[in-house]
Design brief:
This protein has about 575 residues and is of the alpha+beta class. It contains 14 helices and 21 strands. A hairpin with a 4-residue loop joins strand 13 and strand 14.
């Protein structure tokens, strides 16, 4: 034992010696991380400066032309010009400022008074003013028939502080596109502009110009926040698989966001080259020590991997898996113990399977014998009495009814067993819930009277219409009411109530019976689980399957000595009650 301990200690000492390479690895990692971090900060700072300057240029570009239209509006409303003079003035402005394709003056009623366009004006007063700054409203950006970005400026005219019309100018943003196209960082980095609602306004990448024409929404972009710009940098992968680093700068007056993207391969090219060189240098230094570590460590680590694979196989259910560790130390002993444990697990598994089969067979057999013995005995007794010649006609009718009733009991019992193996398909039709429950409750009042239990029904305001199978749901309701009657002592009460809860219909079956213990509530819907002295315990399990097939839910609340409430919920339908009734 002392020899084996010294063997492991020697190998552990060797591992500790090899651990001397950790400082070198740590140094290499710190150097690489510092290099990448510094490069990233530098790239982001430079790109952020470009984005900020571009945002300022675009804001000045838009604001200056908005001021031009505002100045024209001041001129139009402060001096009295006739219509001919007004048209001359707006046309002179369009000639002087070609970015304006059309300027039209509208009166307070919305009628065009003067326009720079010869013929009918093309612009209208926008219903969506978009953003407002400096007294000028700017409509959302759109792409015109020439696939160029355009917007509409609107200035409200006032005369003596009273509304006097609108001055509307169609503004061409082609120059802004050129500004965005001229941004290159350095070769494959581009800028893009996004509107407050996420719509792409401009993109410097020629391959992505079509996205602007398609009014692509960029809300999924990491740096796009509708209504405001985000200055936090981000790295992400685009749909084409390229990795990008991006920064953004807001244009506060317009609510736009300028984003500058650059492929990380280009942004970090120098850092990646230095990182590769540093990695190669560190790798060469480590190769010798790693080789030694692999040579001596392989034999030490191999038993651990063998045991790991063995435990995974056993955990996956392969109890026939065994490990083979040919060493004379503690690992060899651990392997022998593992194999002994696996052998024992095989024995225990066989015992558990055998006991489960016996228990299940016993429960099923006992339930079948218990449930079938009573109806078979009643059928046999009634049959023998029918053969007697001294039985009067009324008694014969009673015996015949007894036989029919018990045969129906046997039929339902066999259907329950068959549904456990192969459930019947559920067909859906529009049905009136109140009418269906009334058909079930009325006949079952007689059964309640025989047991001294009052059966009541409370119907919600109709129509309560759902998509369901009347026969399948009838089986569920009959089963719940029957169970409630059987669980309630004479003098008790069973009630069934319907109601509408939002978009769902709710049915509650409540009894004043003995209740269900809390430790059994979680299993009453399982197969072959019952709280009654007779029965296989299939009724509630089948009922739950039917309810779930109709997209419904069934829950139970119970208190021992006070009673039980089953609650069913089904989606309602908007189909009219007449359609459901038909």
């Amino acid at each position: 034992m002392a020899f084996r301990t010294r063997g492991i200690a020697t190998r552990l000492a060797l591992i500790l010696v090899l651990a001397a390479i950790l400082p070198l690895i740590a140094y290499g990692l710190v150097s690489i991380l510092s290099l990448r971090s510094g490069t990233r900060v530098s790239v982001i700072a430079g790109n952020q400066n470009v984005a900020t300057r571009a945002a300022e240029e675009i804001q000045r570009y838009i604001s200056s032309h908005a001021e031009i239209l505002k100045a024209l509006a001041a001129e139009m409303q402060d001096i009295g010009l006739d219509q001919r003079q007004q048209e001359y003035t707006v046309r002179a402005y369009v000639l002087q400022f070609p970015e304006f394709r059309e300027i039209t003056l509208f009166d307070e009623a919305g009628k065009a008074v003067a326009s720079s366009r010869i013929g009918a004006p093309q612009v209208t007063i926008p219903t969506n003013p978009g953003v407002t700054f400096g007294g000028v409203s700017m409509a959302p950006i759109h792409v015109d028939a020439d696939l160029l970005p355009s917007t509409t400026f609107v200035v409200r005219l006032k005369r003596l502080n009273q509304p006097a019309g609108w001055l509307v100018g169609e503004f061409n943003l082609e120059e802004m596109w050129r500004m965005v196209d001229n941004i290159r960082i350095p070769e494959h980095g581009y800028a893009l502009v996004v509107a407050p609602d996420g719509t792409l306004i401009a993109h410097g990448n020629p391959d992505k110009k079509t996205l602007v024409a398609q009014s692509t929404n960029m809300k999924n972009h990491p740096l796009v926040a509708p209504g405001e710009g985000s200055s936090a940098p981000a790295e992400y992968r685009e749909e084409d698989g390229s990795q990008q680093v991006a920064v953004s700068a807001p244009i506060p007056q317009l609510g736009w966001t300028v984003i500058v993207e650059q492929p990380t391969a280009e942004a970090y090219a120098n850092a990646n080259a230095l990182q590769q060189q540093l990695t190669v240098a560190i790798g060469i230094a480590l190769l010798v020590m790693i080789g030694i570590g692999l040579f001596f460590g392989r034999k030490f680590i191999a038993p651990i991997f063998i045991l790991h694979r063995g435990t995974q196989a056993v955990a996956a259910g392969d109890l026939e898996s065994r490990v083979h560790i040919d060493t004379n130390d503690e690992f060899g002993q651990l392997g022998d113990a593992f194999n002994s444990m696996a052998d024992r697990l095989v024995e225990l598994q066989e015992n558990v399977k055998r006991q489960e089969r016996q228990a299940m067979f016993g429960r099923v057999a006992a339930g079948i014998v218990h449930d079938l013995s009573h109806p078979i005995q009643n059928i046999g007794n009634s049959t023998r009495l029918l053969l007697r010649s001294d039985i009067d006609a009324e008694s014969r009718v009673s015996f015949h009814q007894t036989i029919e009733r018990e045969l129906q009991t046997l039929k339902r019992f066999m259907e329950d067993l068959r549904n456990v193996v192969k459930p019947k398909p559920i067909e859906r039709f529009a049905m009136d819930l109140n009418g269906t429950i009334a058909e079930i409750v009325d006949p079952m009042r007689a059964e309640g009277d025989r047991n001294g239990v009052k059966v009541e029904a409370f119907y919600g305001d109709g129509p309560l219409v759902m998509e369901g199978d009347r026969f399948a749901l009838g089986r569920v309701f009959r089963n719940l009411i029957t169970n409630a009657i059987q669980a309630t002592e004479s003098g008790g009460r069973v009630s069934i109530a319907t109601s509408r809860i939002g978009t769902h219909l709710e049915i509650q079956v409540t009894d004043t019976g003995s209740g269900i213990p809390a430790d059994r509530l979680g299993r009453i819907f399982d197969d072959f689980v019952t709280t009654k002295r007779r029965g296989l315990g299939l009724g509630l399990a089948i009922s739950k399957r039917i309810v779930e097939q109709l997209d419904g839910t069934i829950t139970v609340e119970s208190e021992v000595g006070r009673g039980t409430t089953f609650t069913l919920r089904f989606p309602s339908t908007d189909r009219p009650a007449q359609a459901a009734a038909s």
